[in-house]
Protein: Helix-turn-helix domain-containing protein
Organism: Rubritalea tangerina
Amino acid sequence: MKRKRTIGVLMDWYRPGVIDGLKAYCSEHEGWQLDVRWAPRADWVDRAILGQWDAVVSHILTSKGTVELIESLGMPHVSLNRSTKAALNVFSDFSACAELMVQEFKSVGCEVFLAPVVEGGNIQAEVLVTELVREAAGLGGMEVVERRFDAGVPFTERLEQLVAFTGELKGKRVGFGTPHTGIAYGFIYSLLGAGIRLPEDIAVISLAKDIQRPEEMARVPVTTVELDHWSSGYRAAELLARAGCERETIYVRPIGIQRRESTGGGGAHDHRVARALELIELLAHEPIGVEAISSRCGIGRRTLEQRFHKVTGKTLMGAINAKRMDLAEGYLRGGNDTIEVIAEKVGYSSGHYLSRVFKREMGMTPGAYRRMFR
């Protein structure tokens, strides 16, 4: 039996959605397998562990020594973090993230974009703020006000200065965007302490955390741009599997925006439900189930099922079956394929199973339905 190639995963900023995307790729391609034992602790990995792998996917912010070790071995490596850029990279599309943020700011009446620029700071923040300034001043038509800080200025001092400056802008509704939900969390706490109202005086948006979800626990829950970590993982594996690929960077668009109270939204629009509906439309013809849909939405199955039912009034499986019935009806009306062939085309395991679901949903057998159009 041919030996499977192993992709090792290393992170010091854990992204379970990335793991799910990598797992999906490996399950679809027999020549690859995944080793996630060291995924949360990149700083523990040594040369002996790396020697067991054929390739690495990393999301590393601070463990630079590990990145240097990977590169010294000449191992194929895809980086998911701009702070440790490699020859092969899969990054979140911060231009698209900025566009979503600015659209949200404009929709709630923000006139000014407050841009904190940290000299010599985190590259992730620098890239996003640069894109936000471009979007706000360009398409958004907003006034851009920059506040510059040296990287050595303590975090709490920066927050105090930003809060004081926001107070000086009273009379104008301000928009504030950041890649770090922790910064948004602390900023909101300080704003409220200074008597500045959210979202009446300032609207705040951040990129979502993938696991801790502090945006939901802030004193005023934070509107977030939700990143597509699943696709980042999947695309990273694709990049590693592509023979002869020496240098390439792929940008993955975000899933969408989740509105919360920091921009005046109460979460009426659920981006994860919207994502589930999109996936059902795209993938219902494949043998995909509720577990796979919830995984690609970056959320637990039970939570997604509850939210899906609340928004649509349907179950997830019911929505999948409804789409498959639409597909099956088309094949039955317009072709001569057997029930077995149609079952395969619409994502069912057998003609018997299709017939059973079809009769339950449509009140007649597939054969009886077909005869109506002959």
Notes: The chain has a mean pLDDT of 87. The domain at 270-374 is CATH 1.10.10.60 (Arc Repressor Mutant, subunit A). The chain has three domains: 5-86, 94-228, 270-374.
